[in-house]
Amino acid sequence: MAVIKASSSDIDMLARLVRAEAEGEGEIGMLKAGNVMVNRVRVPCLDFEDINTVPRMVHQSPGGFEATEKGYFYQRARERDKRLARRLVNGERTGIAEFSLWFFRPDGPCPPEWWGQPTTGRYKLHCFYSPEHADCPEVYGTF
């Protein structure tokens, strides 16, 4: 069962963003980055109150994704990427990113906080951050 509404064009868009942001991290890294993306669509809290569709999440500004600004996002989605996107839309969650709303790739160690929220860990080159429960209880809800 889908945890967010997603048309075929939304799946394609999500797949392109997942690929552009985390292709070098392998399938697990792509799923982790995708968890952040789906969570931003799923929950109406913090900076994401009006980010309730895949296109709004992809093109959010400020607070959006580097891949849309630097052009990596504008490559085509492969079937593999679309399969991952469908898994994410259907609610697959992955470890340290399952409740995260932020990730980024620092040059050094992960800062202990990002946008005031604590780190949940690092996967390869990306650090992940989940909101405090009081700041966004919806992200911790079940689907």
Give a description of the structure.
This protein is of the alpha+beta class and 143 residues long. The protein is built from five helices and four strands. The chain has helices spanning 8-22, 26-42, 54-58, 66-70, 79-89; strands spanning 102-104, 113-114, 117-123, 126-129. Helix 2 (26-42) packs across helix 5 (79-89). The longest helix is centred in the first third of the chain and has 17 residues, at 26-42. The protein is globular and about 35 Å long.
Helix content: 25-40%
Class of secondary structure makeup: alpha+beta
Instruction: Name the strands of the widest sheet in spatial order.
Output: 1-4-3-2
Q: What integer value in Å does the Rg equal?
A: 14 Å
Mean pLDDT figure: 94
General form:
globular
Number of β-strand runs: 4
Share of β-strand residues = 5-15%
The count of helical stretches stands at 5
Unreliable segments of 5+ consecutive residues: none
For the record, give the distance between the C-alpha atoms at the N and C termini, rounded to a whole number. Answer: 9 Å
Largest sheet: 4 strands, antiparallel
Strand-and-helix sequence, N→C?
Answer: HHHHHEEEE
